[in-house]
Structures are given as structure tokens and as C-alpha cells.
């Protein structure tokens, strides 16, 4: 009888061991698959360095996110690559730029969350205040619709001109209502802003390009954007293909970006020129 009971116990112990080994293999396999999952983030300009820092941060590891950063020079190519799934998430564009891409492309992107406002600035080598710009001055503007409109709104905010009521996020100089100083406008490629400073009276430059040209918008511009309702379309977002907007891992990237230690590093690295905007997506659409 004792031998029978002893055999039964050995059988139960053996069964428990098999179950434990099976569960261990299951957990190990799941953990291995999780570790192998990598989110590829496409970016350009100074943001490449930001996301390389985030990818290597303890905060990313704690969030269970493995991030690979891929650098681009062409924003349209990056958006197309994101929409097609070649890139999982991109980090470079404003809400207005994303909307314009969706309007002009059959491929659609969705915002995951807000990151920051990089103020656009008015820069001049000849004049120190916007009110010093003379009548007939030549002002250089970016030649893509979203940034052309953004620049014109900044000039209006500075009191240099007024815009028509019909002015929209992709409007151009034909939507100027009054131009009392008879400014002339020269459209340029976004990336050439710092290089044309010596050849025009003033240039409107986004902060990503300004940083590459060793310009600090808070110190070197003669006027720049502030965070308020009038600039919410210029707030930068993380974006992904519309079909992937529900992915929890992608949405974790938004929270990761706003982690306090990461924000301190960004503020120190870029002298406060990447102004944090931690708002729900509804903020952009109200």
C-alpha cells in the first residue's frame, strides 16, 4: 500500500515538473518574441538625435520598447514610407504638415500624440526689430504650402500684414488682405533658409532648419511664435499609418517622449527651443 502511495506521489511530482517546464518554455518564448519586436522611427534633422537618445534611455527599456531610429532628409519620402509601413512611426512634422500630406496623398497618416512646438522665427542680418523692416523689403518664405501659410501667419502676428478671412492652413500670398509695407516675397526651399540670410532682408525659418544653421530661435530671431491657440496647427506630432494608429506600443512612444528626464535632456541639448506640448489630440482639432 505504501509503495502504491509513493508511486502516486512520484507521478504527481513528475506531472507538475512537466507543466512547469511547459509554462517556462511558453513564457520564455513570449519574452523572446517581445524582445525581438522593434519599432522603427523615421526622423530628420535634430530630431534624429533626440530619438537616438530616447531609444538608448533607461525609460525606453522600462517601457518595454525597443526602438530603431532611421534618418531621412526628404520629409515627403518619410511620410510615404510611414504610410506604406516601411517605417512604423515618424517624428518630424507639424499637425498642419500632416493634414496637408493627407489632403494631397492617397496614403493616409494618423497622429499618435503631440510632442512640441518648434517656434518658427523671423531672422534678419540687416535689421534687429520687425518694425525696422523697410517698405519694399524682400522676405523669403518656405515653398511648401503648410510652411508658407505658417510664415504668413507669423508675419500677421507681428503686425506686418493682414490676412483674408478665408486664409487656411495651406494658403499662399494670394490670401494676403493688406500689405501696407509692400513687402516682396521670395519662395525658397525650406532647407536653404540660413544660407539666404545675407541675400534678402528677412527669412522665415522653422526651428529644425534653424538649429542646423546654428541659429537659436529664442535668441537670434527678431520675432518668433509662442505656444497659444493661434499656433496649435504648428505643434509637432508622432505619426503612423492610419491602419496602425490603434497599436498600444506606438502610443507608448508619446508617453515616453514626455518622460521628465528625457524632457530635461531635450531642454538642455536644444536650449529650450523645442517647447514641450503635452496635450490630447483633441487640442489640435477644437
Automatic annotation (TrEMBL):
<keyword id="KW-1133">Transmembrane helix</keyword>
<protein>
    <submittedName>
        <fullName>Amino acid ABC transporter substrate binding component</fullName>
    </submittedName>
</protein>
<dbReference type="Pfam" id="PF03180">
    <property type="entry name" value="Lipoprotein_9"/>
</dbReference>
<keyword id="KW-0472">Membrane</keyword>
<dbReference type="InterPro" id="IPR004872">
    <property type="entry name" value="Lipoprotein_NlpA"/>
</dbReference>
<keyword id="KW-0812">Transmembrane</keyword>
<feature type="transmembrane region" description="Helical">
    <location>
        <begin position="9"/>
        <end position="28"/>
    </location>
</feature>
<keyword id="KW-0449">Lipoprotein</keyword>
<dbReference type="GO" id="GO:0016020">
    <property type="term" value="C:membrane"/>
</dbReference>
<keyword id="KW-0732">Signal</keyword>
<comment type="similarity">
    <text>Belongs to the NlpA lipoprotein family.</text>
</comment>
<keyword id="KW-0564">Palmitate</keyword>
Amino acid at each position: 500500500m505504501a509503495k502504491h502511495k509513493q508511486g502516486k506521489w512520484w507521478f504527481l511530482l513528475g506531472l507538475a515538473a512537466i507543466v512547469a517546464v511547459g509554462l517556462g518554455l511558453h513564457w520564455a518564448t513570449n519574452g523572446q518574441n517581445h524582445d525581438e519586436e522593434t519599432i522603427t522611427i523615421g526622423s530628420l534633422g535634430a530630431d534624429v538625435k533626440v530619438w537616438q537618445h530616447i531609444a538608448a534611455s533607461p525609460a525606453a527599456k522600462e517601457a518595454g520598447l525597443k526602438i530603431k531610429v532611421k534618418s531621412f532628409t526628404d520629409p515627403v519620402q518619410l511620410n510615404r514610407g510611414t504610410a506604406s509601413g516601411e517605417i512604423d512611426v515618424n517624428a518630424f512634422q507639424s499637425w498642419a504638415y500632416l493634414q496637408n500630406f493627407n489632403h494631397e496623398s492617397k496614403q493616409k497618416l494618423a497622429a499618435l500624440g503631440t510632442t512640441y512646438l518648434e517656434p518658427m522665427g523671423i531672422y534678419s542680418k540687416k535689421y534687429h526689430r520687425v518694425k525696422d523692416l523697410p517698405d519694399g523689403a524682400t522676405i523669403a518664405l518656405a515653398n511648401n504650402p503648410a510652411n508658407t501659410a505658417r510664415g504668413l501667419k507669423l508675419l500677421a502676428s507681428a503686425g506686418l500684414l493682414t490676412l483674408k478671412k478665408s486664409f487656411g492652413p495651406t494658403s499662399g500670398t494670394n490670401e494676403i488682405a493688406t500689405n501696407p509695407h509692400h513687402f516682396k516675397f521670395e519662395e525658397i526651399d525650406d532647407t536653404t533658409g540660413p544660407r539666404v540670410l545675407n541675400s534678402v532682408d528677412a527669412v522665415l525659418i522653422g526651428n529644425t532648419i534653424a538649429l542646423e544653421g546654428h541659429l537659436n530661435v529664442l535668441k537670434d530671431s527678431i520675432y518668433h511664435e509662442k505656444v497659444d491657440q493661434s499656433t496649435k496647427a504648428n505643434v509637432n506630432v508622432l505619426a503612423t499609418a492610419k491602419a496602425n494608429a490603434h497599436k498600444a506600443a506606438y502610443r507608448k512612444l508619446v508617453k515616453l517622449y514626455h518622460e521628465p528626464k528625457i524632457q530635461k535632456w531635450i531642454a538642455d541639448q536644444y536650449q529650450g527651443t523645442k517647447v514641450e506640448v503635452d496635450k490630447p489630440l483633441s487640442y489640435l482639432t477644437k
